[in-house]
Amino acid sequence: MANETSRELPVEGEFDCPPEPLPTLRHSASHIMAQAVTELFPGVRLAIGPAIEDGFYYDFARDEPFTPEDLERIEARMREIAKADYPFVREELPRAEAIRFFQERGEVFKVEILNGLAADRVSLYRQGDFVDLCRGPHVPSTGHLKAFKLLSASGAYWRGDERRPMLQRIYGTAWRTREELEQHLWRLEEAKRRDHRKLGRELQLFTFHDVSPGAPFWLPKGMIVFRELERFWREVHDARGYLEISTPILVNKRLWEESGHWEHYRENMFLVEAEEQVFSLKPMNCPESTYVYRHHLRSYRDLPLRFAELGRLHRNERSGTLAGMFRVRQFTQDDAHIYCRPDQLEAEITGVIEIVQLIYGTFGFEPRFSLSTRPAKAMGDPALWEQAETALAEALRKRDLPYEVRAGEGAFYGPKIDVVISDVLGRAWQLATIQLDLVMLPERFALEYIDADGKAKRPVAIHRAIYGSFERFVGILTEHFAGAFPTWLAPVQVRVLPVSERHVAYGRSVLDRLRSAGLRAELDERSEKLGYKIREAQLQKVPYMLVVGEREAQAGTVSLRRRGGDDLGQIPLDRFIAEVTAEVSARSMKSPLG
RNA sequence: GCCGGCGUAGCUCAGAGGUAGAGCAGCCGAUUCGUAAUCGGCAGGUCGUCGGUUCGACUCCGACCGCCGGCUCCA
Q1: Residue A14: what pLDDT?
Q2: Lookup: nucleotide whose C1' is closest to A156 CA
Q3: Which domains does chain A have, with CATH numbers?
Q4: A210/B7 CA-to-C1' distance in Å
Q5: Most distant CA pair in chain A: distance in Å?
Q6: Other Cβ atoms closer than 10 A to A540
Q7: Which of A84, A148, A299, A382 has the most C-beta neighbours closer than 10 Å?
Q8: Nucleotides on strand B with an atom closer than 7 A to protein CB?
């Protein structure tokens, strides 16, 4: 991931944004915004203003933050600048001259950027009276900016460094056409409608309370989703030779000193003191899994050992970073540590990739893979690194999976595969990681196995998670499905709706049948009109509504209505149960009915 | 942690230096209803917490806590 500095100030490369139409337009939009701001707020200093995914921003140095009213004025001024259709004019000059130019104007940030550049000559872009240091490219003139909108203002550190001044950042979005802009704004609205914090409350899945910031209270309905995910996960792992373990949550600080976490991760750990000893809530499962490995002497015949653990972890994240289920302080990782011989790596990685495909496919996610290779500061045997990277690449290649190589992006203790998915709104989420560990666990914890030659050898470890964390995964699923979970995950799968109280008795017999068939069913026996009951079931996103009245009671049927759909007419109860139980056991995404 | 915004009933929100209101949800009653809201009544809040100013604070000031949007960080 590019940081602020590398994104803005690459040592090499000719442009400040990808020379494609949309990034160019957005980059130009940021210049137009900067022009508007300098005109409306004299004395504001300019920092940087790049194109980003879906839009652009510009950072300004100003004592006062920008208010929503300020944004409206800036946007209005931008429209005037666009209408004036000033051409973007490129000028080149010696760097020293540019430094003088910006120094005279008090543009200290531009001077700092220029001082950090290696180039002899630099370029400026001018539109109207506004000049900015920039390598381009830009659209020919300001009139090309037609479909844009300013979205928000916030603080941002100069060069992303919290020790440096806080700047005022304004975000905007820009598109080629009005239609594209409207569509993007609709996506933003839709994301708000699907917000898992809102849906979690409305659907009674989970809640938060200030007695434990960053830690969810799982409500009964949310717990059903959690348990179904857990059940699925266990089925998959049990069938593939994983051995489930569970290790302590509260652990003496000695362990973290041994693992190195005490030195590098202490500020993120919750500490507890008892009887003059310091303990920590575990932020990771890995070190403790080595104790299971070392529980007795291992033979080469024992390997691979696949220890799975649904460990509850605590990490003391900085308060400002918490965000619903997406960023919590307490979470449940679907972890596993595989200990194997180097020659088993490829087969083990292949096994993990198969699990990723199987599990993600069930939710309709298409995983994308990237391979991060040996960094400069790597530790461990170079030959083993070579073998490990080859194993990862071969595992992907043999399954015909395209992947992006991130050279040098691996951890110092091993290369890894990261897995990313996109949800229905096109938002990318990094979920699974397959992290090889040639150093940390094997070396620090002195892991060994006795090989065929009778000598002690060092195994390698694979850290891997599929969901990542149940909390975040449930948050993602909630937004992805907008709360309308596939039937197998739905907290309530069927709701029986008697037309009037006269039909409650038949409704109860239907309910009993559904429950004996293992379906999660409810009966709405309140003295309300049918329309009211339907509305509520609909809002609760219950997959199936069964209307029962006189006709159904006579015929032994139910009248079916799908979530979000219409009246599908009568169906024999037996058939309904057979279809839906099949749908559930197949963990299908689609209903066989309607 | 930093910048900014916000915190009034379970939820969504109104109000305001003289001590609080609506809709929905809840409870009670009536209604017995055929595919997205039946009617009436009742109850519900030390206005996030602590401190200060004031005759008087939910309202003004300060600190803290929490939430939201970003920055940084990240499963």
Answers
A1: 59
A2: B71
A3: 4-186 (3.30.980.10), 199-247+285-480 (3.30.930.10), 494-585 (3.40.50.800)
A4: 12
A5: 93
A6: 19
A7: A148
A8: 1-5, 11, 30-38, 65-75
Q: Distance from residue A326 (CA) to nucleotide B52 (C1'), in Å?
A: 39
The DSSP result for A68-117, as a single string, is: HHHHHHHHHHHHHHHHHTPBPEEEEEEHHHHHHHHHHTT-HHHHHHHHT-
Active site residues of A: 286, 315, 333, 335, 337, 416, 463
Neighbours of A547 (CB within 10 A): 22
- Percent pLDDT > 90 in chain A is 86
Dihedral-angle region of residue A496 (phi above 0 means left; psi in -120 to 50 means alpha; beta otherwise) = beta
Nearest to A372 by CA among A402, A345, A409: A409
pLDDT the model gives residue A5: 30
| Separation of A475 CA and B51 C1' (Å) | 39
Q: Summarize pLDDT for A194-238 with one digit per residue, the tens.
A: 999 999 999 999 999 989 999 999 999 999 999 999 999 999 999
Nearest protein residue, CA measured to C1' of B2: A162
Residue nearest to nucleotide B74 (CA to C1'): A327
Query: What values do phi and psi take at A196, rounded to 5?
Result: -65, -25
User: Encoding tokens for residue A371?
Assistant: 């391979």
Predicted complex ipTM: 0.93
Q: Which nucleotide is nearest to A212 (CA to C1')?
A: B66
Rounded Cα gap, residues A348 and A340, in angstroms: 8
